Amino acid sequence: MPVQAHAEEFRSPGSGGGAGTGILLSHGFTGSPRSMRPFAEHLAAEGYGVAVPRLPGHGTDWREMNTTRWQDWYAVLDNELERLRKEHDQVFVAGLSMGGCLVLRLAEQHGADISGVILVNPSVRTDDKRLVLLPALQRLVPSFPGISNDIKKPGVDEGAYDRMPLKALYSLSQLWRVTRDDLAKVTQPVLLFRSTVDHVVEPSSGRAILSAISSRDVTETLLEDSYHVATLDNDAPRIFADTSAFISRLTAARPAADA
């Protein structure tokens, strides 16, 4: 199935002093690499090795997405992480919304192989009581109207689907459950950005993450001028700058024996 023009993957090998560090970024549910591209380009300009893969079923058609499951999305990121680990001394992971959940799962599974985790409005649950019907509903109804372009900044389009594929959404709910169950395994430093107004992910997701992870180095930053897709919104420059400072601090603090 043809990939939409805006959904192309992005990779940069890194250069100069930053080339020893690789950063894996993941877009969110029904989105595409477009939502992470400015973030990735900022990090690449600083010399870091960067990868933004396109998750299966994304950036094509919502009907194709309904044939994929969270294990398919996770496998792409897991393979990309393995490649980055071979090419760089340290690897950080970053994710938006569902991408945040997926990189948390990577952190749970790979421990010290990941040097830090950056989360932007991550989702690990929902307060929407209607989703209790999802196990049955996804067998009967292919999609609902989508929730996309939750962006305060005028004129910005994340390029997400206008339909919500329900079989894929049901699989996402299963990813939320397995990730929540293992959050205590997350020990890496965490930088979490949360929009104070988010029409997609409720504050309960951020609270669930921060109350369950075992990380000692945790920073939560509230974004006052952005909605859900904050990587494309008014607070994006702050996300980019704070992430650069977070990575720079942790790479500088790495013990010489490991360098």
Automatic annotation (TrEMBL):
Q: Which InterPro entries match?
A: AB_hydrolase_fold (IPR029058), Esterase_lipase (IPR012354), Hydrolase_4 (IPR022742), MAG_DAG_Lipase (IPR051044)
| Any GO MF annotation of the entry | carboxylic ester hydrolase activity
Which SUPFAM superfamilies does the record cross-reference, listed alphabetically? alpha/beta-Hydrolases (SSF53474)
Segments forming domain Serine aminopeptidase S33: 23-233
Q: Where is this region: Disordered?
A: 1-24
**Where do the catalytic residues lie?**
97, 198, 228
In this chain, composition skew of type Basic and acidic residues spans: 1-11
List where the protein spans the membrane. none
Q: Which Gene3D superfamilies match?
A: alpha/beta hydrolase (3.40.50.1820)
**Site positions for Important for substrate specificity:** 147
List ligand-binding residues for substrate: 29, 98
- Entry protein name: Carboxylesterase
Question: Can you name the source organism?
Answer: Kribbella voronezhensis
